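Side project, low priority. Logging it here so it doesn't get lost.
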Amino acid sequence: MKEFTERHHAFIAAAFYDELTKAFGERGKAAFVQATQRYAEQRGSRMAQRAIRDGKPLNFQTYKEYGEWVNTKTVIDAQENNQSTNLQWSPDLVTKITRCPWAIEFASLGMQEGGVVYCTHLDKAIVRGFNPYLVFNTTQSLHDHEYCIQISEGANFAEGQTFVRDPKNQRGFDYHCGHSYKTYSQITEAIFSSEGRKISANVLDRFAERYGRDMADKLLSYRNVDFDVIDD
């Protein structure tokens, strides 16, 4: 079985967007947004749980330090890893992102429209799950612009400040992909019932066709994981 990467993760979201909007139009799009937000809030909540465990304040510095992933070696070797610069450090952190494997994958699928919807809601909801009193916005994305702009309001970072993510708080992209597939499936099936189950099955088949049945089976192996809480 090959390594799960950021691009596998992006494929799952893109496939759900495609299936949902083709089947249900604007209702499908609304369901996709709901599922994206739910997935992201769960991820942010896990970050907060670890931070509270460790006695850390739920501010933007801790948020930066408790992220659950770093770019995979596969993506780095392909020169598809995230590239960004900070245009402003204080009072708001303003970040310009010029390369992103999620944007690369959405573009390869011709799904830039879905990428815009995904990125409009994803990080904002991760931050909300971490601490709903923090304010974060993505004002434009690589899917339809030359670069992304993300703003962390009131972060008040020192210029050049760096953040190190502790490896013990990170999870592999098999975990993140399993989480993504489970959450999108749950929301899709809750809203659209039997038609939603068909969409979940279609996404899994598309994933298996692209990446192999063993990787699709790995996604399903996470179906009983409770992604609301940490397990470490």
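Brief comment: The chain has seven helices and four strands.
Revisit when time allows.
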